[in-house]
Specification:
This protein has 468 residues and is of the alpha/beta class. It has 11 helices and 22 strands. The strands form 3 sheets. Strands 1, 2, 3, 4, 5, 17, 18, 19, 20, 21 and 22 form an 11-stranded mixed beta sheet that branches. It starts with a helix and ends with a strand.
């Protein structure tokens, strides 16, 4: 065979190899939100392709050989007020909204984790517990326990949600015990009376059992919402020694005696006091009953979650609340902040979930309680009769909830000051990278995975979720 023929055959072989490689090239899809609102959580039509080559410029390297914490889900608090607005919608409008929120098909966002208030929160029309008694009377045997107002909104809405996603995880959080259990006999502030510790443990057991009887499994509870902030209505002051004592000597044993598997989560307050959960977990007799610690971010730094993880790496970390709001009728959407601080920040600091505050409110941010309710708590969606408006909290959670399904695991990706990011591997083997552009302008960058490069760019303030 002469040299010319050999060259032709070799060239044909190389072309064939290149064609085969291109056919097997890794394709990625992008779901994008732009700060100017021209794109709001939309899949981009043109597929992206990883290519062989060297990276030039800023590069985010994703390594699925390094695993961190598993992920339980992303979502919101289904407050009593949220459920009230949803249940008052027409059946058709309600079904469409719930499908969009909890299904995963099409443009649905697949919320996979919810927080319920045990009794009223400050975003209910009125304050109540499940065992309210006339002034001067008590009910230590829980004879009068009843889920009450939740039976008209929270429970029927939850049943519709469970029909869409039966596996959704539910966290229950109390804002206050019944007033007769408290030192000030008021729904606002006060402490739990020492002689009511076992009674309150019984109350929480009955809540879990009553919800289960309605087909609703409470996966976990926190002991007290914001235990160091007794200014809400309802609320309770519960110092760390009190919470530790209650778990060790009352709630933990009560759960064990009743055969309850619901997880117990400590703290449920801001990242400025990591000493609170650490001090409780330092006691082995208490720690054995505890699954992990929950955090908000109205104070402190998100890195405090890692401090607690490092102190007790055998216990889980959860992100249980953050209010995310934007001015009404604003021309831009500040989505980069909640994605950077919560979706990326919490999960890069070991959290198994991210919950933003309050699924729904009306255009006036109602309902909220008097003497300490929240008059500025915007819902992820604003419901005006049957009309629904999606807000910044909706879009920020959507960038994670739709793709990072329960059972995913966080994997390694290098951090960047102006391109904060986090990566995951899903149960079906897909890789998900969430990136926010917090820089001063459009940024081009590379995504590197298994030696191949994907060159992309994000406009200022935009968020992209890349899936391959």
């Amino acid at each position: 065979m002469n040299t010319q023929i050999k060259s032709i055959l070799l060239g044909a072989m190389l072309l064939g190899t290149t064609a085969a490689a291109n056919a097997q090239a890794t394709k990625a899809s992008l779901w994008l939100t732009k700060a100017d609102r021209s794109v709001l959580f939309e899949q981009q039509k043109d597929p992206l392709t990883f290519k062989t080559g060297e990276s030039d410029g800023t590069t985010i390297t994703v390594d699925d050989k390094q695993h961190y914490q598993p992920i339980d889900g992303f979502g919101f608090a289904l407050t009593g007020g949220s459920a009230m607005h949803i249940i008052r919608m027409s059946a058709e409008s309600r079904a469409a909204l719930l499908k969009n929120l909890f299904a995963v098909t099409g443009n649905d966002i697949g919320i996979s984790y919810l927080r319920l208030s045990i009794g009223a929160s400050d975003l209910n029309e009125k304050v109540f517990s499940y065992d309210d008694m006339p002034e001067g009377q008590t009910d230590p045997t829980m004879k009068h326990f009843d889920l009450g107002p939740d039976k008209t909104d929270v429970i029927p809405v939850m049943k519709q949600i469970l029909a869409i996603n039966p596996a959704i995880k539910i966290l229950g959080s109390p804002w206050s015990p019944p007033a007769w259990m408290k030192t000030n006999n008021d729904t606002r502030g006060g402490r739990l009376k020492p002689d009511c510790y076992p009674v309150y443990a019984k109350y929480l057991v009955k809540y879990i059992q009553a919800m289960k009887a309605n087909g609703i499994n409470i996966d976990a509870i926190t002991i007290q919402n914001e235990p160091l902030h007794p200014g809400n209505n309802p609320s309770l002051l519960m110092a760390a020694p009190d919470e530790g004592d209650f778990i060790k000597n009352n709630l933990g044993p009560a759960f064990k005696a009743a055969g309850i598997k619901t997880k117990i989560i400590l703290y449920d307050h801001n990242a400025d006091r990591p000493d609170y959960p650490i001090s409780i977990l330092n006691d082995p007799a208490t720690r054995k009953y505890v699954d992990g610690s929950g955090f908000h971010l109205y104070g402190g730094d998100i890195s405090a979650l890692t401090d607690v993880h490092n102190a007790h790496p055998d216990k889980n970390i959860y992100f249980t609340e953050q209010m995310t709001v934007e001015p009404e009728n604003q021309s831009t959407i500040n989505i980069a902040w909640p994605v950077k601080s919560l979706i990326i920040g919490a999960t890069r600091n070991w959290s198994r979930n991210v919950l933003e505050w309050n699924l729904a409110a009306d255009p006036e941010y109602k309902p909220y309680t008097d003497r300490g309710g929240c008059p500025m708590c915007q819902g992820a969606v604003t419901i005006d009769k049957n009309e629904v408006k999606k807000n910044v909290a909706y879009y920020s959670v959507a960038h994670a909830s739709k793709f990072v399904r329960p059972g995913s695991v966080r994997i390694a990706s290098n951090s960047s000051e102006t391109l904060p990011n986090v990566a995951f591997k899903t149960p079906d083997g897909k890789k998900v990278l969430i990136v926010a552009n917090t820089g001063e302008g459009t940024q081009g960058f590379n995504i590197k995975y298994e030696g191949k490069i994907l060159a992309v760019k994000l406009d200022k303030g935009s968020v992209g979720t890349y899936i391959w």
